Amino acid sequence: KQEVTQIPAALSVPEGENLVLNCSFTDSAIYNLQWFRQDPGKGLTSLLLIQSSQREQTSGRLNASLDKSSGRSTLYIAASQPGDSATYLCAVLTGGGNKLTFGTGTQLKVEL
Amino acid sequence: EAEVAQSPRYKITEKSQAVAFWCDPISGHATLYWYRQILGQGPELLVQFQDESVVDDSQLPKDRFSAERLKGVDSTLKIQPAELGDSAMYLCASSLSRFYEQYFGPGTRLTVT
Asked: Which residues of A make CB contacts under 8 Å with B?
């Protein structure tokens, strides 16, 4: 059974700091990995999707890397802003493309 | 920009009552998912449709939950009877097909009293 772990569970940083969120998964037989953002009481917004054959993806100030063999992914946020405050979830697609397994998320607070 | 629509956004119901949630996926998306998210946890898949067919409902409590996607477009998730432990956010997502990026709706926050 695929298990996804995210560390840290919560993070508070001052505005402007660069930061890294970590995601690990137990079964390396994945099709892709997605990073999502979730604001309180809202749905999920897809940030980045990395195919299993890719090593990284970039979108604006976000960069996600994938090391499938070691079961790890990182989300790098450059020059953090208060608007980046949210919960960040990673999820891996396994099981013949049928199952997206989520981590429990990292709750990020960027302070002025 | 196309979005996944869900209604209602909030629902309060008493235990033993029936509730229903509706989802309209992004046009052209063949795969539709229903997830349940308990506060502080990641979403967990309840049921997955490919067009009008159920692909995976292994985590759906079938004694009280049912889901349908009759014409392969919009979908309804029903709970009958609701229990206190069903209080959660119910999220709908869609994708072009199984291996593609999933897009989520705003969710329905269910509170069972």
From this structure: 4, 31-32, 34, 36, 41-46, 49, 89, 91, 93, 96-105
